[in-house]
Amino acid sequence: MSNPRSAPTDERQLAAGPATPAAGRVLVVDDVAGNISLARSVLERDGYLVTSAANGREALAAVVRDHPDLILLDVMMPDLDGFETCRQLKSDAATRLLPVVLVTALRNTQDKIRGLDAGADDFVTKPFNAPELRARVRSLIRIKRYTDDLDSAESVIVSLALTIEARDPSTDGHCQRLAAYAAALGVELGLGEDDLAALERGGFLHDIGKVGIPDSVLLKPGALTRDEYEQMKTHTVIGDRLCGELRSLRRVRSIVRSHHERLDGSGYPDQLKGDAVPVLAQLMGIVDVFDALTTSRPYKMALPPESAHEELVREAERGWRQRELVDVFIKMSTSGRLPAFYAASVEPSVATGAARMS
Ligand SMILES: [Fe+2]
């Protein structure tokens, strides 16, 4: 039986679980073993947990396995070189915030440009200058810790949104559907990457403020009283306040606050009119109505998509929504380009249920 005491430092600590050493985890990637030893001797003295890989492919696998806080990546390697490895890490949402320091033997401007193009965060040259290497690693890991905190704050908010959804089993999957519908509508309209990301996050977070609405109102099976309706309306403002603390959610805030606004000023919470209603919030409003109508709730049956389309057209004619946006949505939906969630929840011979104020 193997004795864990005899394992090398990095294996022993990894086997102990996901605990991160105080200074951080560094993955050193180099096809020359001597270079790895050199970097290891400098970094381990500062308390880093150093793991290693001998080429780009091994490095990509090691990132998934070891969750490093930083990669020291040699440029000149056979097969998958440092530039390509870096490019792959930076194009994957799961690893794009992982700092990559490219190690090059050449003081070559062309290499630096290629490295920057590949998304590298910094460079060091071989042979290592120990104080310089330690300073770079220290500062990049500090930034990484900060972005980790941002990410985890956001994941807390998303978990909270899903918890709220779980309070009301009748809306099961609503957040996920809205995220998919809204992003699909954004693609249809040719919106940019940032807007598409905001629409997807907005789908999950639009009703996050319902965390502040009591169950007696949120889960009430019948129509709401005037007071209860006023209380329900505050979910937009509560949600805006919750997201307001996070810089990474600033594009999502307008969706959270304004997804119940109507272009004629009869919506809430700010009675915005016309172009003052943020476009992303308008898009969320359209898919929110579609989803609410095509799924069953305790107080109503699900409608087929065609009836939901008709309702959206009526709302546009009433001056609540932009007709062009509604038309784009309907065209997308009728031509089968809407992510297919609703089929399972629509009952074929449904009666029109009484709409509820919400
Ligand atoms: Fe809402």
Describe this structure in words.
The chain has about 350 residues and is an alpha/beta fold. It contains 16 helices and 5 strands. It has a 5-stranded parallel sheet with strand order 2-1-3-4-5, sandwiched between helices. α13 crosses α14. The radius of gyration is 26 Å and the shape is elongated. About 35% of the residues are buried. The structure holds fe (ii) ion (FE2). The site of fe (ii) ion (FE2) has 5 residues, from loops.
Mean pLDDT score, rounded? 84
Based on DSSP secondary structure assignment, what is the total number of beta strands? Answer: 5
Quaternary state reads: single chain
What share of the residues does DSSP label as strand, in percent? 5-15%
